[in-house]
Design brief:
heterodimer; A: 231 residues; alpha+beta; two-stranded parallel sheet; 39% helix; globular; B: 216 residues; mainly alpha; 10 helices; 69% helix; 2% strand
């Protein structure tokens, strides 16, 4: 700065300059971010929807068409448009004859690192879990992320027992993760050595979620069975 | 402005001759951010667990580095000294946010595997370092070359780590199997510790090469 100037004048001048620079850059950057956000949003939404769609087809083997349902206030399910943003959605999958093959449900809970979001398929006919897919996880690469890749662990979910009690109001046995190799009952999930916490987290998520959803879905089985759907 | 440019030329001429190609080359090799400056270690160690992650992270960083270098250098006479770091961070953070959206738009899976490290490009000291040490004192053209060189040098460094770690830790390269199926993966290479080992070995190789050349 110029030292011959009086100190006061110099200070105000440079404050103004600082303010100008910061505000100017701020406005410019804000504009840039808004543009990028607006520009990429349709693609991002589409990508996310596609990822979910793919996952739904993965967790319900043999499905051809899907229909989205929303849980209504009176514990019944109403069909909604596939793009609705309402909270509690389940996705019913049908084969080419329009027969219900399963219902996909999204569940989430705390994993070893951050929230785990999973999707599983439930078959009301056999009262079993028929598929499982991790939508979002930040589990340790190489250890915790085995819940996504380990074929042994994945095979737990092709026929995990979630049958209901006599009065159909609750599960006979909640799914639970047991130590690797200790699985004895059809409702137990064989854990992964080296991914104990992550595989237990999956057990907890599945336990809580099925406890809530399976009796509801079972009660409303007829709603889902309406054959031939628009989409 | 004319005055400043002259000053810079005088200052830099004492360092090195032909400008723009040298600005580019030095980032790739002589002043490589990973192997020579050892800057930006957080993403270097964390996201170099597979070759594709390392590559994507390197490109994302290159883009941010390039854009921020250009903007900082074009605004270098407008930003007062006292608020320069705040301004640089603001500029860098905005470009990182843009990059984050773009990566999500390209591939959700890629975004998933890079995780929180995209947002952490903001605090990558390579970028702030170049803005402060180079872009704030040089013309847009030279800053562009510098950003490109440093960015690609960073990508190259990350890729060296990522390829080795994926090969040993997962038995694959770019997701394709490389070893016969009975190959026992070295899980440790995928974990953070493996990053340190690999980096140490690469640094050893680089320094050995440098020493050899110095002797010759």
């Amino acid at each position: 700065m110029n030292e011959t100037n009086p100190v006061n004048k110099d200070a105000t001048a440079s404050s103004l300059k600082m303010l100008q620079a910061m505000v100017g850059i701020g406005i410019f950057c804000a504009l840039m971010i808004v543009l990028a956000f607006e520009g990429t949003m349709p693609r991002i939404e589409q990508n996310k929807a596609e990822a979910l769609e793919k996952a739904i087809f993965k967790v319900i083997p043999g499905m051809e068409t899907k229909k989205t349902f929303k849980l209504g206030p009176d514990n019944s399910f109403v069909p909604v448009d596939g793009k609705s943003k309402a909270d509690q959605l389940v996705y019913a999958g049908y084969d080419q004859n329009g027969k219900l093959v399963g219902v996909a449900v999204e569940a989430s809970g705390l994993g070893f690192a951050d929230v785990l979001r999973v999707l599983y398929g439930y078959d009301p006919e056999t009262q079993k879990i028929i598929g499982f897919y991790v939508l979002e996880s930040k589990e340790t690469p190489g250890l915790g992320d085995k819940i996504e890749k380990d074929p042994g662990f994945q095979s737990n979910f092709s026929g995990l027992d979630v049958s209901l009690t006599e009065d159909q109001s609750a599960l006979k046995n909640q799914p639970v993760t047991v130590k690797h190799g200790a699985k004895e009952n059809p409702w137990e999930i064989d854990g992964i050595t080296g991914a104990t916490i992550s595989s237990r987290a999956v057990g907890n998520i599945m336990g809580t979620s099925t406890e809530f959803w399976v009796p509801l879905i079972h009660k409303n089985k007829e709603t889902f069975m309406v054959s031939k759907t628009e989409q | 402005m004319g005055n400043q440019t002259k000053d810079n030329k005088g200052f830099l001429a004492s360092l090195k001759d032909s400008p723009s190609t040298d600005d580019f080359i030095k980032g790739l090799w002589r002043e490589n951010p990973v192997f020579v400056q050892v800057l930006g270690m957080c993403p270097t160690l964390a996201v170099s667990n597979t070759a594709i992650n390392a590559f994507a992270m390197g490109l994302a960083t290159t883009f941010v580095l390039l854009m921020s270098n250009m903007l900082v250098s074009s605004l270098r006479n407008f930003i007062p000294k006292q608020v320069r770091i705040a301004s640089y961070i603001l500029i860098i953070a905005s470009f990182v946010t843009v990059t984050d959206y773009v990566i999500q738009a390209i591939s959700i899976d890629l975004h998933k595997s890079l995780g929180a490290f995209i947002s952490l490009i903001v605090v990558n000291c390579v970028i702030l370092g170049r803005a402060e040490a180079f872009a704030s004192k040089n013309t847009v053209g030279r800053s562009f070359m510098d950003g490109l060189g440093m960015g690609l040098g960073f990508t190259f460094g990350l890729f060296c780590l990522g390829a080795v770690r994926e090969l040993l830790g997962n038995g694959t390269i770019f997701g394709f199997p490389f070893f016969p199926s009975n190959f026992q993966e070295w899980i440790v290479m995928i974990l953070p510790a493996g990053g340190f080992f690999t980096l140490a070995i690469w640094l050893l190789v680089f320094n050995a090469l440098k020493e050899k050349r110095a002797k010759a």
